[in-house]
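User: Could you go from structure to sequence for me? I need the amino acid at each position, not a summary. Structure tokens:
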């Protein structure tokens, strides 16, 4: 009994108002001292230009992303206009907007690049142990090498019939939807999620088999990205995520859906893939691979599975939505693309054949450019080397004049051929050793669906009360977000 009383007494002494005030004072002194160090000559980055408040503390970044709602990318752009090509944007990070330096920041092979902890702090739960969220280079290579072969161009050509069938299935379902307007992000998310889940687990989520397009993976992804900035600047919240399976239902329906997708839906599909033991899907083969046992735990593979589905659905669906808007709002673009594809059988399309059409190439790459993919920065740490920036005579050159204008002709040379030299300016899939693993799958989907869209859907499709501001990039939540109240690309089918 005396020990219990003693513990209560100690607890009471620790949590008196005076003690709490002292702890808060010590914390404030620590933060102030750290801020002073960050702007002092003793800090290695002190010589780089940028706002002193940004250099002093992460609070500056938090103001723009937390308080002003994902606006720090716009502030970084303003910094470059004032200070030049390299600016210090927080106590630990430099930002560069000279494209000639991109290959130094994101090298392809042979050079170590780690991910920055501040950026990864926005991810939680099983996602923390996915390949895309792995901080150190060595562990990332183990995890990434295990899945690389599933997304090679050769392998995607093998599963092209799956992509083709899913595209036709989506198209036929859209043509049957002659009632209420359709928000096109929904069918595209159903298509991309069903495709990547079928390939990953040998069984699709079945979104395209439902009565409408309302059920798709976007709901889970949106619930994740709405927490991005909060979790990044309050990383202690990541430690509460383990309670989410217990309390997710009390945090609202969207968070509950996110939790269920992470802790129930994806794990159940992985279990079925293991039981199925048939080759041809990613997780059956991963579970039978030579990966260390620790890398094949259900928790880690669930994070990998969720990450693959999210990456394999969201950005491709967004690009297709942009393509749809511009084909419907700019009849000359649609007419030129229709003329180019007029000899194609819409029911028997070939990715390799479609890649030969220059204007189709131009439309797809212009959509990737303007839809952005991932809009937030992707910081890297060059652990074993100093990166030397030598272009002191930097001049801003507009590679894409009038960047908000949809101009596929940017991607054609003087003879009307595809200008592949321009592809180096596309950052939609990232660059270097951590480039998006699903790039080949995304291009296969983009070519096949755009062709199906032109040949089967556009003649029956009309924009419904939609303007560019309904999809235009306004702020960051990992992915680009339109203005508040934006309604997306809505269409009617006749």
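Assistant: Here is the amino acid at each position, in order:
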């Amino acid at each position: 009994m005396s020990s219990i009383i003693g513990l209560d007494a100690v607890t009471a002494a620790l949590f008196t108002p005076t003690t709490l005030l002292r702890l808060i004072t010590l914390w404030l002194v620590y933060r102030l001292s750290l801020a002073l160090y960050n702007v002092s000559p003793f800090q290695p980055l002190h010589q780089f230009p940028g706002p002193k408040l940004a250099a002093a503390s992460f609070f500056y970044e938090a103001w723009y992303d937390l308080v002003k709602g994902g606006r720090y990318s716009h502030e970084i752009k303003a910094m470059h206009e004032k200070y030049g090509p390299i600016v210090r944007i927080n106590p630990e990070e430099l930002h560069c907007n000279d494209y000639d330096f991109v290959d130094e920041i994101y090298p392809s092979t042979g050079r170590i690049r780690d991910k920055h902890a501040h950026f990864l702090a926005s991810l939680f739960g099983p996602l923390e142990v996915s390949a895309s969220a792995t901080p150190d280079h060595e562990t990332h290579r183990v995890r990434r090498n295990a899945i690389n072969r599933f997304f090679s161009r050769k392998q995607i050509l093998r599963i092209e019939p799956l992509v083709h069938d899913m595209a036709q299935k989506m198209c036929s379902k859209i043509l049957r939807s002659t009632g209420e307007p359709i928000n096109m992000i929904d069918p595209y998310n159903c298509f991309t999620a069903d495709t990547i889940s079928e390939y990953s687990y040998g069984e699709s989520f079945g979104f395209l088999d439902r009565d409408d397009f309302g059920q798709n993976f976007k709901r889970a992804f949106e619930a994740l990205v709405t927490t991005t900035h909060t979790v990044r600047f309050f990383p202690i919240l990541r430690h509460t995520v383990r309670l989410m399976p217990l309390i997710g239902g009390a945090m609202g329906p969207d968070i509950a859906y996110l939790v269920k997708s992470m802790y129930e839906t994806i794990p159940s599909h992985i279990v079925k893939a293991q039981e199925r033991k048939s080759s041809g899907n990613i997780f059956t083969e991963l579970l039978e691979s030579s990966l260390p046992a620790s890398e094949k735990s259900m928790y880690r593979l669930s994070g990998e599975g969720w990450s693959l589905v999210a990456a394999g659905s969201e950005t491709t669906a967004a690009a297709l939505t942009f393509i749809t808007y511009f084909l419907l709002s700019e009849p000359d673009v649609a007419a030129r693309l229709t003329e180019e594809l007029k000899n194609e059988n819409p029911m028997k399309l070939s990715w390799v054949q479609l890649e030969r059409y220059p204007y189709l190439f131009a439309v797809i790459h212009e959509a990737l450019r303007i839809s952005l993919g991932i809009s937030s920065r992707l910081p890297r740490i060059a652990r074993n080397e100093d990166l030397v920036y030598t272009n002191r005579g930097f001049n801003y050159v507009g590679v894409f004049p009038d960047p908000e204008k949809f101009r596929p002709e940017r991607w054609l040379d003087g003879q009307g051929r595809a200008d592949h030299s321009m592809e180096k300016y596309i950052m939609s899939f990232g660059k270097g050793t951590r480039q998006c693993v699903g790039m080949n799958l995304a291009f296969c989907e983009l070519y096949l669906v755009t062709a199906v869209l032109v040949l089967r859907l556009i003649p029956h499709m009309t924009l419904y009360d939609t303007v560019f501001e309904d999809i235009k990039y306004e702020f960051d939540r990992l992915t680009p977000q339109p203005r508040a109240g934006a309604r997306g690309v809505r269409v009617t089918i006749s």
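One structural detail worth keeping in mind: The mean pLDDT is 92.
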